[in-house]
Amino acid sequence: MRKIVSVNPATGEILRELECAAENEVLAAVGRAGAAQGAWAEIGVRRRIAVLREFQRRLQERKSEIAEAISREAGKPVAEALTTEVLVVLDAARFLVENAHRLLRDEPLPHGNLATKLKSGRLVRAPHGVVGIISPWNYPFSIPATETVVALVAGNAVVLKPSEFTSLVALELESLLHAAGVPPDVFRVVVGDGATGAALLHSEIDKLVFTGSVATGKRIAAAAGERLLPVVLELGGKDPMLVLDDADVDVASSAAVWGAFVNAGQTCLSVERCYVHRRLYEAFLKACVEKTKKLRVGHGLDRETDVGPMIHERQLRTVESHVEDAVTRGARVMAGGCRLAELGKHFYTPTLLADVTHEMLIMREETFGPVLPVMAFHSDEEAVRLANDSEYGLAASVWTRDRERGERLARRIQAGTVMVNDVVSCYGISEAPHGGVKSSGVGRAHGRFGLDEMVRLKYLDVDRMPGIKKVWWYGYGASFTRQMEGFIDFQFARGLTERLRGALRAVGVVRRKQL
Ligand code: NAD
Fold first, then answer.
1. How far apart are CA 80 and CA 295, in angstroms?
2. pLDDT tens for residues 490-514?
3. Ligand 1: which atom is nearest the Cα of residue 237?
4. What is the pLDDT of residues 271-304, one digit of tens each?
5. Which has the closest alpha carbon to 243: 386, 439, 414?
6. For residues 443 and 50, what is the distance between their CA atoms, to the nearest angstrom?
7. CA-CA 20 to 30 A from 447: which of 18, 284, 407, 471?
8. What is the enclosing helix (H) or strand (E) of 406?
């Protein structure tokens, strides 16, 4: 039996040892979910919304306790656990409570083509069945919870395989949802490592939502392709921040420092590359150095902490290797640049690098740690080119006092989201679709587009004249051909006379002999 160990990354304390769900246990959980899903879909969206409301009530009541559990297992400050996890989930539930009924109901689909005018069309949204969710450790509550509630409200059952580093938070989510009234077989957490995730991928699930690294995402996409399993892939990012020559240096530098160091830089939407107009470059760096040096690094449970530890040694080594590579190639370390061993094994100082280039790993690969690399540019054109010179395309930001200029540039940046004068916060906007382009992923989470991912769209077509044969059925011949030419002219010719002539030619079409 394989085991996983849940550890407090700030102290190294072992929180709990858990057994990985074996392959047959994963298959059984999926089987039970499949058997229970029909009844869950059957109760209707209003009753599922009532369960969601109860979940929301319980989460609001237990907010501090849940935030502390997140901080203990993932290391982040409790304040961040409240704002970027608990609040995000409460608001995602709010969005669904307010909108799911309207967004899931049947939608009439009127036809424009005169040939099919007599039929009535409708769009029907049906749940997929069992949705598998595989999630990462960096937002151990908000990612699996927002994905789960949207799947559940649409009538799916869910089997969740959380990250092996943050299973306890996922078990808190499970107990909250069960207590709110989600039947145990309709939502189940299977804890385990990558092999447990692979077992879920190869089980009888009907859809998979995966959030994690590009490398694992590509492996998952290949396996899903084999059986045409529909997938949503929310993968890594290397988000650029563009500070234009008219930006407010004080505001933009505060945003850069928060955007790069929130959750110790372990955020898919982190500011991973910062480009500043040459005219503001030195002032911007100076402001960032001052602000970075004021950050208090420490244990997440200490309410005075700004930046917590990193999750594990492997993540720290990636950060160290990127910083080392940058320094070797000529980057200047303006702040930090080393571990903070006196605090514990997983602490790294918030680090500011200047004069970086696109030859350095720090500007090409996802660093996923507390590092803010800054580079100068000379023109908007160059800034856009640098922003797009990346295999990733999750999010980006443009900083300017001129909103129109910001929007113009935003449209040219290859990313799932571009913010003008803000960073990271788009994940907390429940209405906004979240997802990437290029290697950052496929599909969308959140809002109505996230809900669309959780249903099979069915087109329901009902003929209102069942006693009449369709004109396009057999019974071809020279006169039918002429009639059809007339019908096409009647609908699509530009001139009125031509259209009327077409109508006259088409008249006979309904009276002809058919098989
Ligand atoms: P990871 O890819 O190592 O693991 C993610 C999940 O996949 C874990 O639960 C893991 O156990 C599971 N897994 C690993 N191998 C598997 C396999 N072969 N089959 C099935 N499941 C498998 O990623 P991570 O280190 O946990 O998370 C960090 C990454 O996630 C970063 O790249 C980050 O950018 C990305 N991320 C993206 C988003 C987004 O919304 N786009 C959000 C958060 C994190």
1. 14
2. 999 999 999 999 999 998 887 788 8
3. 34
4. 999 999 999 999 999 999 999 999 999 999 999 9
5. 386
6. 28
7. 407
8. helix 403-412
Report helix, strand or coil for 446: coil
| Cβ neighbour number for residue 492 with a 10 Å cutoff | 10
Reported as half-sphere exposure (CB side, CA atoms, 13 A), residue 361 has a value of 15
Ligand 1 nearest atom to the CA of residue 311, by list position: 25
pTM of the model: 0.97
Residue 246: closest CA among 351, 399, 69, 417: 399
Measure the N-to-C terminal CA separation of the chain; round to a whole number of Å: 68
Nearest to 261 by CA among 224, 291, 229: 291
Location of structure tokens 């789960």? 148
Secondary structure class of 271 (helix, strand, coil): coil
- Non-local (6+) Cβ contacts of 379 within 8 A are none
Amino acid at 481: T
Q: How far is CA 120 from the centre of its chain?
A: 35
Q: At residue 123, what is the residue type?
A: L
Query: How many helices (H) and strands (E) are present in the chain, helices listed first?
Result: 17, 18
Taking only the tens place, the pLDDT of each residue in 173-201 is: 999 999 999 999 999 999 999 999 999 99
Render pLDDT for 466-487 as a digit per residue (tens, 0 to 9). Answer: 999 998 999 999 999 999 999 9
User: In this structure, are residues 443 and 435 in contact, taking their beta carbons and an 8 Å threshold?
Assistant: yes
- Choose which residue among 26, 138, 169, 231 to substitute to test ligand 1 binding: the one with the highest number of ligand atoms within 8 A of its C-beta: 138
Q: Read off the tokens for 75.
A: 């290391």
Q: Are 459 and 109 in contact (CB under 8 A)?
A: yes
pLDDT digits (tens, 9 = 90+) for 113-142: 998 988 999 999 999 999 999 999 999 999
Structure tokens at 99: 């909108």
Q: Strands 273-277 and 371-377: what pairing? A: parallel
Pocket of ligand 1 contains residue 198 by CB under 6 Å = yes
Dmax over CA atoms of the chain, in Å, equals 92
Taking the centre of ligand 1 as the mean of its atom positions, its distance from the CA of residue 162, in whole angstroms, is 9
Q: Which long-range contacts (CB under 8 A, 24 or more apart) does 470-479 make?
A: 471/115, 471/509, 471/510, 472/115, 473/514, 473/515, 474/514, 474/515, 475/512, 475/513, 475/514, 475/515, 477/512, 479/508, 479/512
pLDDT digits 0-9 by tens, 210-266: 999 999 999 999 999 999 999 999 999 999 999 999 999 999 999 999 999 999 999
Decide if 439 contacts 408 (C-beta within 8 A): no
pLDDT at residue 367 in the model: 98
- Taking CA atoms, 204 is separated from 157, 182, 368, in Å, by 12, 21, 33
Assess whether 17 carries a catalytic annotation.
Answer: no
State the closest ligand 1 atom to the C-alpha of 436, by its place in the atom list counted from 1: 41
Q: How many residues are given for the chain?
A: 515
Cβ atoms of 398 and 417 within 8 Å: the answer is: no
